Amino acid sequence: MDKPIIVYEFRSKFLFKPTWGAHRRRSKRSLVCSQQWKDKAKGSPNKYHRCQKFKGLSVLAHVASLITIPNQSDSVLSKEKPTKPKRQRIKPRPRPRVTRRAGPHPPPCLPTQFMDKINGLNGQDLKLVIQKRLSKTDMKPRFARLSIPKGQVRTDFLSQEDHTILEQREANGINYKGMEVPLIEPSLAKSTIVLKKLKLGCSKSYILSSGWQKVAVDNGLEADNIIQLWSFKVSQIVHLALVKL
């Protein structure tokens, strides 16, 4: 059997396509077949189409083998932009911690009547814990606490054992346990108050909680009053003294 003579028209850059077939007939035919093959194709068009399809694929494969594709790595390397040197990230300098101070500066010494009271108890290691202005939150009954922010604490007045006790948590695993501390009130009366830690966001602070509201009422404390909180130890037990300026 004679093979059909197939002529392909160059339609695109790398592709040859037959432009005559059973799917679509055009006015100008560029595919010429022998008369003998045309007569046989009339009886079995599917066979002709299959042959035409395979012929087209073989020609495309031959054309593809002749085309040389440049190395992909070379093209990628040629398109790569020169790498810029990385900028060194400058770390921000830590800002110095600013301690908020309220009231007279330097802070006044402990009044004489308080010193006599402490000496009568054989108190030692006297330290000024904080001098602050009472806020509205300190005086609200629903909070019932005096906050002692760590950023305003002038010196560490607790022992390692006291820190261990204050780090213990209650049964709920959230709130901290407190410790009862003897207190000398502004009126020189003796009482007991609870000292504990309170976590506010990412920061922690000390607070005087149970008994604070009664101390504030008995001594006429109001918001914006300047107070001092002193610490001293009697037989290695921490005591506190609250002074109203």
UniProtKB/TrEMBL annotation:
Superkingdom of source: Eukaryota
Region (Disordered): 74-109
A Pfam family per the record: At2g31720-like
Basic residues bias (residue ranges): 84-103
GO (cellular component) term, any one: nucleus
Stored InterPro entries: At2g31720-like, DNA-bd_pseudobarrel_sf
Keywords: DNA-binding, Nucleus, Transcription, Transcription regulation
Principal cellular location given in the protein's record: nucleus
Subcellular location(s) per record: Nucleus
Coiled-coil ranges per UniProt: none
Gene Ontology MF, one: DNA binding
Identification of the protein by name: TF-B3 domain-containing protein
